[in-house]
Fold this sequence. Notes:
The chain is of the alpha/beta class. It has eleven helices and eight strands. Strands 3-2-1-4-5-6-7-8 form an eight-stranded mixed sheet, with helices on both faces.
Amino acid sequence: MNHVAVxxxxxxxxxxxxxxxxxxxxxxxVEVSRERIDGAVxxxxxxxxxLVKKGSIDEGGKLAALDRVxxxxxxxxxxxxALVVEAVVESFxxxxxxxxxxxxxxxxxxIFASNTSSISITELAAxxxxxxxxxGMHFMNPVPVMTLVEIIRGLATSDATYRTVEETxxxxxxxxxxxxxxxxxxxxxxxxxxxxxxVYCLMExxxxxxxxxxxxxxxxxxxxxxxxLADLIGLDVCLAIMNVLxxxxxxxxxxxxxxxKKMVAAGRLGRKSGRxxxxxx
Length: 281
């Protein structure tokens, strides 16, 4: 396996493309426009610049990684990748449509992987003609820094597919962890209710945003407080995951906080919009 395709060039997608390119893979990055491709490659270049400044890679390594990334605007231009990693928005209909389009143009042996944070791998796989070659490959944000990859088995995922993706994750320098296909998997089933509860604390006036984050940083040794982390993830993404958990388990403990819903409705999505629980320049 030396050619992969990454569909979606946003925060997660460009990070995934970067780590594959750094590991020596030829990467085809699929986005909806040339402008979006240029933005994604620009983000990769800035991320690699930071690694050069830290001494993690040299200038030659940066240029070699960038040279391995090719951008296209339609899936029909994806040339027979061994693996496709989807990293589009957290919406089942959109992801389903992406995989059905890929299913029509990719060879039968191509493995499909979704970077979904919470959506059922089994349901996505069922929308394709290759459910046994479909798997979840959930990277953490920021992708170039975080070492964990949750590998989620759908109901039909074959052992061979799982082993191939597990080994690929190791080639990227990541630590793969096997997880079964339940809403939120492990990471977001644990993380998102904590963030949601922090938003409830803010809404109910239990403490200020700074105090809530400081308690979790100093008391629980978290590197980032839950409200600041929500801003980093994107409040719209947090809400989408909470809705998946609430719908999937039909349990009131996963009810999204009204304040979280209100902020998303107002367009206060966190860092990407310039304002969430905190303000950003």
